[in-house]
Write a structure and sequence with these properties.
seven-stranded mixed β-sheet; 25 helices; five-stranded parallel β-sheet; alpha/beta; 14% strand
Length: 634
């Protein structure tokens, strides 16, 4: 596109050459460029549109990359990428070998910290600000937190520490009443009602400058003055301010879509000493009507017509359902029959299809906001009193609740059903979002039952089994995307805990798999047996373990005794997962087959690309598995 201003901006230094009067047009062009790019190369649309003015103002006022800009929830940062030397290659965003889906320090010096998960910006930026203070650096540090991230516990831990360390940190709270779905909880209500007195702020600034000129603001006196003025402000406004209660100076709310006003305010705050917070109001999806009206749908809408807003259809009625939708429909069936079942999700009701349950029985579903640790412990508390919580968390996000799973659920054998969506390779969101550590991380934890369905029927049966008796904590992990059965509704039946199944008999090679990746194994066996036809056709056995813990030792004894060649296949890290469990058992029992473990490569973070591309690169697509089979029998 031939943009008047955007075509002249390669780096923020070019932006800073423009007069402030040109910035509204820059914002309009940037927003238009994001819409057009994402219409053909899908990604996170609404969040980046909502911070367009803020992005422009930050790079206009601050000397990036020397000044540190720390984003929280990286799907806000598309405009940032375009303005920092990556516009010409932005069409590669989220593609294999292309730009990373979120800010990535190895990609650009303008990306100061990894931010694929929420709520880490304040802590990271505070660390940078304290380091600058200790090194007597004048570098500015700005943390941008929003899209519901302020509900995360790490954000509050960072806030609590901000006032106790010497720093000049600027926190910008992008308050759009959203995460992916609408924000929930007390912090949302607080931010909606929070206001400030502009006359008071002007008076306070003048008083602060007078005290500083007269040498009355050493560290001890400064804290005393801050506490006094915070109390005075609360009295004048008849409102207590949580941020100033933490000795963080509060400014706002400010219209986050008035770029000139943002520039004025940021210039005012730029050289102000001490920690401070600027509260701005924005609209997620701002400037593109369909995204403004339906921000949840347009968070990541896929391909669409930028002129009409019509989204591309995938003819989903002719395809198997998504695993998340099978979960959403099945939990309703279970809840109708079992009044003790409740649903818990940390800000992902639509993403995990808990919204289906929420629509039918809203009083039995709890969206706790971006707070995975709390979601787990909250579920544990309900289980303690006899409820059966189905706690649905994306696998990669559940990493943040590891201690809660151990300390608050597993130790007491509480009946919480953990449904880990987006397990395994997730695709274009890359290393921060792949759910590849769950099996290895949870396998050593006592009292857990861990299973993974190969298809939608198995998912339904595992969910049914999990709520039947008091099994203790029960983990079900399943992938992002579609299953394999168009006719997915099957009877809800119990599965014996810790029992797998032999899917195919064979004599030359045994393949042991767990979860959805077993469908790749089925295809690989067909390919290998076809290619191996001749005087001595290869014969391959296939076992679906279903459960990683307790693992089916009857199957492992059968395989260990009968086969000299064994392949394990999983869509998680090889170290500590299914392959490790099989090797350990064989070693303990004295079985000595030749074993190949297929899964995520050791000690490497898998980057972004389509699921098919990444599985092929790793060697766990049907072709890669078939090649490993044939190498055994060649």
């Amino acid at each position: 596109m031939n943009y008047k201003y955007l075509n002249t901006i390669k780096y923020p230094a070019d932006l800073r050459k423009l007069p402030v009067e040109a910035l509204p047009d820059v914002c309009s062009e940037l927003r238009d460029d994001i819409v057009k790019e994402l219409s053909v190369n899908p990604g996170h649309l609404a969040s980046s549109l909502g911070v367009t003015e803020l992005t422009v103002a930050l790079h206009y006022v601050f000397n990036t990359p020397e000044d540190r800009l720390v984003w929280d929830v990286g799907h806000q940062a598309y405009g940032h990428k375009i303005l920092t030397g990556r516009r010409e290659v932005f069409s590669t965003n989220r593609k294999l070998g292309g730009l990373h889906p979120f800010p990535c320090p190895s990609e650009s010096e303008y990306d100061t910290f990894t931010c694929g998960h929420a709520s880490n910006s304040i802590s990271a930026a505070l660390g940078m600000a304290v380091a600058n203070s200790s090194q007597h650096s004048n570098r500015k540090v700005i943390a941008v937190i929003g899209d519901g991230s302020m509900s995360g516990g790490l954000a509050f831990e960072g806030l609590n520490n901000v006032s106790s360390s010497p720093n000049d940190l600027l926190i910008i709270l992008n308050d759009n009443n959203m995460s992916i779905d609408r924000s929930v909880g007390g912090m949302k209500q607080y931010l909606l009602s929070l206001s400030t007195n502009e006359s008071y702020n002007r008076w306070r600034n003048k008083a602060g400058l007078w005290l500083k000129r007269h040498g009355m603001l050493d560290d001890t006196r400064k804290k005393t003055v801050i506490r006094f003025t915070n109390a005075l402000k609360a009295a004048l406004s008849s409102q207590q301010n949580i941020f100033e209660g933490m000795n963080i100076r509060y400014f706002g709310p400010v219209d986050g879509h008035d770029v000139k006003e943002l520039v004025r305010v940021l210039n005012h705050l730029k050289d102000m000493t001490g920690p401070k917070l600027l509260h701005i109001h924005t609209v997620k999806g701002k400037g593109y009507k369909p995204a403004e009206e339906h921000a949840t749908i347009w968070h990541a809408p896929g391909k669409f017509n930028p002129e009409t807003g019509e989204r591309s259809s995938d003819n989903s009625e002719d395809l198997p359902p998504k695993y998340q939708d099978v979960f959403g429909e099945t939990i309703i069936e279970l809840a109708k029959a079992n009044p003790n079942i409740v649903g818990v999700t940390p800000a992902m009701p639509t993403g995990c299809s808990m919204n289906k349950f929420m629509e039918v029985m809203p009083e039995r579903v709890f969206d706790v906001g971006i707070a995975e640790g709390h979601a787990v412990t909250f579920s544990g508390g309900m289980a303690k009193e006899g409820l059966i919580p189905f706690c649905n968390i994306y696998s990669a996000f559940a990493q943040r609740a590891y201690d809660n799973i151990i300390h608050d659920v597993a130790i007491e054998r509480l009946n919480v059903v953990f449904c880990f969506d987006r397990a395994g390779i997730v695709g274009e969101d890359g290393a921060t979002h792949h759910g590849t550590f769950d099996l290895a991380a949870l396998r050593p934890v006592p009292n857990l039952t861990i299973c993974a369905p190969m298809n939608e029927h198995e998912l339904r049966k595992m969910m049914f089994t999990a709520q039947q008796e008091k099994h203790g904590p029960f983990v079900i992990r399943y992938p992002r995307g579609r299953g394999v059965n168009i006719d997915w509704r099957c009877p809800l039946e119990d599965i014996p805990i810790g029992k797998g199944r032999r899917l195919k008999e064979g004599r030359d090679v045994a393949i042991i798999s767990i979860g959805h990746i077993g469908n790749n194994v089925t295809k690989a066996i067909e390919m290998a047996e076809f290619q191996g036809n001749g005087d001595s056709p290869v014969s391959i056995a296939h076992y679906d373990m279903r459960f990683l813990k307790p693992i089916d030792t009857d199957i492992l004894d059968e395989v260990g005794k009968r086969f000299k060649a064994v392949i394990t296949v999983e869509d998680g890290v090889r170290t500590g997962g299914l392959g490790s469990a099989v090797v350990e058992y064989f070693a303990d029992q004295g079985y000595t087959p030749h074993i190949v473990r297929l899964g995520m490569p050791d000690d490497v973070f898998v980057e972004h690309g389509t699921v098919a591309q990444l599985q092929h690169a790793i060697g766990i697509d049907a072709e890669g598995i078939a090649q490993n089979i044939l190498s055994f029998v060649s």
